[in-house]
Structure prediction request, 248 residues.
Amino acid sequence: MSAGLLSADALEAAIRAVGAGRYHDKHPFHQLLHGGKLNKGQVQAWALNRYCYQSAVPRKDAALLSRVEDRALRREWILRILDHDGTETEQGGIDRWLALTDGLGLDRAMVVSMRSALPATRFAVEAYVRFVREQPLVEAVASSLTELFAPKIHRERISGMLEHYDFIDDTVMAYFKRRLDQAPRDADFALAFVRRHATTPELQQGAIDAVRFKCSVLWTMLDALHHAYVAPGNVPPGAFTPEPSDGE
Prediction:
């Protein structure tokens, strides 16, 4: 990136270029997952560990809201918390993710406790929450812009997993189907905010770097899964160990 101020369109192009090169749809673990190359135990491990991220999203968004003076931004951003935590009348994303782990045969109490998640997963997720809490607001908002790239991976996941795994059905894929509508709405709002408020070269570079950071968080989570559950013999002590029948 040059030292000068980018136009809003050039800034958006730079952010999209980060996703084109670094988004986790390119990770080998996802290629295996979507291509039907994992066994049930490995899919269970993915769903269990990803729950740590799903459950942290409302905390991340609440941390951002606590810093926001602008009522309009708060009104829009609070929808993200409701999308994940749900309301009295509508199931949220966390409940839909638990429907996935239930459908995969995982004990719900074990999933919710997160005690069997990989240490690297927990560290990566908490690094993301801390980033949003501590970094400049434009960067905190920009870190959510991986949602620009999410609908593609959700569509691939829905079609690939339904096609390749006999233990996956429409019910357990409800989370991803709902995000096909929610993610573009959230990304459009966050992108407009960053285009409007990244008004210096430093803020623009910070926004681009924030998207890189978020891509690294997601990539790190898959690195840990691949190391523990695809490469043999690397499950750390205390982490989820698939049943022997699931590993054959």
